[in-house]
């Protein structure tokens, strides 16, 4: 999802509606910050359904890497 798509969806909502993220082991917490991560598609994913579509590029940024917005859980 892009920021534009997210904004379009959020514009349909009550501006006072709470935004939450999954709790660490259960329940929910309020979203209290956003982070930024550099990602690239995970070519090792293949049939590993438990892995996400992207992996973080810590040192080896490539031409297909991009900066993305992350909504983290509370720490």
Tell me what the structure shows.
It is a single chain. With 75 residues, the chain is mostly beta strands. The protein has one domain. Helices cover 11% and strands 28% of the residues. It contains 1 helix and 5 strands; from the N terminus they run H-E-E-E-E-E. The strands form 2 sheets. It has a 3-stranded antiparallel beta sheet, with no helix packed on it. Strands 1-2 form a two-stranded antiparallel ribbon. A hairpin with a 5-residue loop joins strand 1 and strand 2 (28-30). It is globular and about 40 Å long. The model has no long low-confidence stretch (mean pLDDT 90).
Question: Gist?
Answer:
It is built from 1 helix and 5 strands.
Number of strands: 5
What topology, given as strand order, has the largest sheet?
A: 4-3-5
Q: What proportion strand?
A: 25-35%
Low-confidence stretches: none
What kind of sheet is the major sheet? Answer: 3 strands, antiparallel
* Number of domains as seen in the coordinates: 1
The backbone outline, from C-alpha atoms, is: globular
User: What does the average pLDDT come to?
Assistant: 90
Based on secondary structure, the structural category is: mainly beta
Helix share, percent: 10-25%
Radius of gyration: 15 Å
Measured between the Cα atoms of the first and last residue, the distance is 24 Å
Write the element-wise H/E pattern from the N-terminal end onward.
HEEEEE
Tally the helices: what do you get?
1
